[in-house]
Design brief:
The complex is a heterodimer. By secondary structure, chain A is of the alpha/beta class. Chain A contains 6 helices and 11 strands. A 9-stranded mixed sheet of chain A has the order 9-8-7-10-6-1-4-5-11, with helices on both faces. In chain A, strands 2-3 form a two-stranded antiparallel sheet. The radius of gyration of chain A is 21 Å and the shape is globular. By secondary structure, chain B is of the alpha+beta class. Chain B has 11 helices and 10 strands. In chain B, strands 1-4-5-8 form a 4-stranded mixed sheet, covered by helices on one side. Chain B has a 4-stranded antiparallel sheet with strand order 2-3-7-6, with helices on one face. Classes of the chains: A alpha/beta, B alpha+beta.
Chain lengths: 260, 382
C-alpha cells in the first residue's frame, strides 16, 4: 500500500501580516512551519502504515526552503519525500497548484490513498485537496475525523459534519482530507531525525513533471483576491438543561418574544 | 550558555524539549493532583526513541553515554521531575543488566527496554536499609534450578508499573558486603507482588511501592553477573545514575527561574514591574548563577564519567549533591519572588518546591554524597 501525503509549508500563525497591495499574505521574514492540518494527515498516514504496512511518501510544492519541512516529515515517519519546485510555479493559486500536484503525482506513480490536511492555515481555501482528486478523477472525502478500518483497499471513515458525523465506506484509490480531531501528531523520533539528516530528497521541476507552462504559476492562476475580510460570527447558541418538559418550557420562553 | 553539543546531542535535546513543552507541562498539574502515573507521556518518549538513548547499539539502542541521558532528563526535569523520575528510574533498573549482565540476559531484556516495551525498576532500599545498604534483609537461596527470594523492598520507584525489577538480595550473609547479589525479577513471577502506591509530598506522577517477595521462585539464570558481586554493581549503577538526578535538579531549577522571571516582569507593585527592584533582581541573579554553575558541573561530570568509567564516584557525588541543593534553593526562592501567588496551587512553583526536596534524599542523601566525596579526598591525600 502506498500513501501519499500532500503537505505545505506555511507562515507561522503567530506572526501573520497581509500585503496591502495584493491582499495576500506577506511571507518574507516570517518563520515557516508545516501546515498543522497536514501534520495530522502525515500522522494518520504513518499510523496506517504502522498498523497495515506500506509506504508513506510526503509531497510538497514549494520553494527550495520547503526541504526543511520535508526533513521534518521524515523524522516524523515518512519513508520518502518529494519536493516539487520550480521558479515557474511561483504565484500559483489553488487551480494551478492542483494541476501541478496532479502532474507530480502521476510522475511519482501508483498510489492507493492520498491524505491532505482539510485546508492550509495561510490561504484557508480547502480547495487543493478536492481539486487534486477531481483532476486525478478519483473520489474524495473531506473533513475526516477518524479512519475506522482499512482492509483490502476498502476504508470505513467518519466525516465530520456540523451536527455529528457521517460513516462512509469507500474504495481506493481515493483522496481524504483530515481535521485536527483525527489524531495527535507525534514528536519526531531520534531514529527519524538521523534518517532525515541523511535522506536524499527527490526534486521534480516543471520539466520533470511535463507541466504545460500556461497552466502553472501566475499565468495558470485565474484567482484574483479582491477583498479580505473576517466572516461574520455565527449566531449565538443555547443549550437547555433539565428534563424534557423543562427544556421545552425554556425553548418556548426563548421563542415567545419572536412570535408576539 | 553554549555547551557546544554535537548534532546528535542537539537532536536529543530538541526532541526532549518538545515532549516537555507539548506533553509534560500541559499535564503536570493534573498528574500531580491525581497521583497519576504518566503512561501516555512515557509512550510518547518511547515513540521518539528516547528509551534507547543509553542502550548499547547491538541491543537496539543508540549507545549513548551518561552525558546523553543527562541532556534528556534535564529537559524532562524542567517540566516535571515526577515524570522525569519515572523515566530515569527505568534506567536505574536496567543499568545492572548493562553493567554486569550476561550476553543472553542483555539480549533478552535490552531490546524491549530500548523500544519502550518494557520498563525497569531498581529494588535496593528496605525498611532498615537505606543509607546503610548493609542492613538488607531480603534473601535469595538456590533451590535446584531456581532462586527463592524472600523479603520486602520499600519505596521502590516505578513499583507496580515496571516489568523488569533489578533486586538486591543477600545470598551469603557470612560474607558481609560480598554476600549480596542482584537478580532480575519479572512482573508476574510467582511469589512476587507490589504494595499499594505510597502517598508522597512531591513527585506524585511517579509510582512508589513496596516489592514483596514470598517464596518468589525465579530461574537460576536471572542472577545478574556473578554471585556476591551485587554491592559492587549497585555502587557502579548509582555512580552512573546520579548525574541523571543532578540533571533533573538543573532542569527543575531552570523551570522555576523561568516562572519567577516571567512573573517578576509582569507583576506591578509601587508603580513598576517588581523585576525593576534590586532585591528581586539579586534573587533572580543568584538563581541564575546557581543553575549555570550546576549545569556546568553536571555536564562536565557526565563527560568525565563517560571517559573514565573506573573513576566516577567522586564527580558523580559532587554533581548530585550540588545540583540538587541548588534546585531546592532556587525553587524555594522562586516561591518567594512570586509571593502569595507562588504559594498558590494555580502556579507551578509550589509543586516545584515540593518536588525538589526528594532530589536531596533519593539515590543517596546529599549527606551520603558528602561522605563519598570526603572519603575520596581522604584517599587522595593519604
Amino acid at each position: 500500500m502506498k500513501i501519499i501525503v500532500c503537505i505545505k509549508q506555511v507562515p507561522d500563525t503567530k506572526d501573520v501580516r497581509l500585503d496591502p497591495e495584493t491582499n495576500t499574505l506577506a511571507r518574507e521574514g516570517v518563520e515557516s512551519i508545516m501546515n498543522p492540518y497536514d501534520q495530522h494527515a502525515l500522522e494518520e498516514a504513518v499510523r496506517l502504515k504502522e498498523q497495515y504496512g506500506g509506504e508513506v511518501v510526503a509531497v510538497t510544492m514549494g520553494p527550495p526552503q520547503a526541504e526543511e519541512m520535508l526533513r521534518l516529515a521524515v523524522s516524523c515517519g515518512a519513508d520518502d519525500v518529494v519536493l516539487v519546485s520550480d521558479r515557474s510555479f511561483a504565484g500559483a493559486d489553488t487551480w494551478a497548484t492542483s494541476y501541478t500536484l496532479e502532474k507530480a503525482l502521476k510522475k511519482i506513480g501508483d498510489f492507493d490513498l492520498i491524505l491532505c490536511g482539510k485546508q492550509a492555515i495561510d490561504g484557508d481555501t480547502a480547495q487543493v485537496g478536492p481539486g487534486l482528486a477531481t483532476r486525478l478523477d478519483i473520489p474524495y472525502i473531506t473533513c475526516v475525523q477518524k479512519i475506522r478500518e482499512f482492509t483490502e483497499n476498502k476504508l470505513v471513515l467518519e466525516r465530520m459534519m456540523d451536527d455529528g458525523f457521517d460513516v462512509v465506506r469507500v474504495e481506493c484509490p481515493l483522496l481524504v482530507t483530515v481535521v485536527k480531531d483525527i489524531n495527535e501528531p507525534r514528536v519526531p523520533s531520534l531514529k527519524g531525525k538521523m534518517r532525515a539528516k541523511k535522506i536524499d530528497i527527490t526534486k521534480l521541476s516543471a520539466d520533470d513533471i511535463g507541466a504545460d507552462p500556461a497552466c502553472i504559476g501566475l499565468p495558470g492562476s485565474p484567482t484574483k483576491v479582491v477583498k479580505v475580510f473576517a466572516p461574520e460570527p455565527r449566531g449565538g447558541r443555547a443549550v437547555f438543561e433539565g428534563n424534557l418538559d423543562e427544556q421545552i418550557d425554556q425553548l418556548v420562553d426563548k421563542l415567545m418574544p419572536y412570535l408576539s | 550558555m553554549d555547551y557546544f553539543l554535537s548534532e546528535e546531542q542537539q537532536m536529543i535535546v530538541d526532541i526532549a524539549r518538545q515532549i516537555t513543552d507539548e506533553r509534560i507541562i500541559p499535564n503536570r498539574a493534573e498528574l500531580d493532583e491525581k497521583h497519576e502515573f504518566p503512561r501516555e507521556i512515557l509512550n510518547d518518549m518511547a515513540k521518539a526513541d528516547l528509551f534507547g538513548v543509553p542502550i548499547p547499539e547491538e541491543y537496539g539502542g543508540f549507545g549513548g553515554g551518561c552525558f546523553d541521558i543527562v541532556l534528556t532528563v534535564e529537559q524532562f526535569g524542567r517540566g516535571c521531575i515526577g515524570v522525569g523520575t519515572a523515566f530515569a528510574a527505568n534506567f536505574l533498573g536496567v543499568y545492572p543488566i548493562i553493567l554486569a549482565g550476561s550476553k543472553e540476559m542483555k539480549e533478552k531484556y535490552l531490546p524491549d527496554v530500548a523500544a519502550g516495551k518494557k520498563f525497569g525498576a531498581f529494588g535496593l532500599t528496605e525498611a532498615n536499609a537505606g543509607s546503610d545498604a548493609s542492613g538488607i534483609k531480603t534473601t535469595a537461596v538456590l533451590d535446584g534450578d531456581e532462586w527463592v527470594l524472600n523479603g520486602t523492598k520499600q519505596w521502590i520507584t516505578n513499583g507496580g508499573e515496571a516489568q523488569i525489577y533489578s533486586v538486591v538480595a543477600i545470598t551469603d550473609r557470612s560474607r558481609g558486603p560480598r554476600g549480596a547479589s542482584i537478580f532480575v525479577v519479572e512482573e508476574g513471577d510467582p511469589g512476587f507482588s507490589c504494595g499499594p502506591k505510597e502517598k508522597k509530598m512531591g513527585i506524585r506522577a511517579s509510582s512508589t511501592t513496596e516489592l514483596i517477595f514470598k517464596d518468589c521462585r525465579i530461574p537460576k539464570d536471572r542472577l545478574v553477573g556473578r554471585q556476591g558481586t551485587g554491592f559492587i554493581t549497585v555502587m557502579k549503577t548509582l555512580d552512573l545514575s546520579r548525574p541523571g538526578i543532578a540533571a533533573l535538579g538543573v532542569g527543575l531549577a531552570q523551570g522555576a527561574l523561568d516562572q519567577a522571571a516571567a512573573y517578576a516582569k509582569q507583576r506591578q507593585q509601587f508603580g513598576k514591574p517588581i523585576i525593576g527592584f534590586q532585591a528581586v533582581q539579586h534573587m533572580l541573579a543568584d538563581m541564575a548563577i546557581g543553575i549555570e554553575s550546576a549545569r556546568s558541573l553536571v555536564y562536565s561530570s557526565a563527560k568525565h564519567i563517560q571517559a573514565h568509567p573506573k573513576d566516577m564516584s567522586k564527580v558523580s557525588a559532587m554533581c548530585k549533591a550540588y545540583a540538587t541543593d541548588v534546585a531546592m534553593k532556587v525553587t524555594t526562592d522562586a516561591v518567594q519572588v512570586m509571593g502569595g501567588y507562588g504559594y498558590m496551587c494555580e502556579y507551578p512553583v509550589e509543586k516545584m518546591m515540593r518536588d525538589a526536596k526528594i532530589l536531596q534524599i533519593y539515590e543517596g542523601t546529599n549527606q551520603i554524597q558528602r561522605n563519598v566525596i570526603g572519603q575520596e579526598i581522604n584517599k587522595e591525600y593519604s
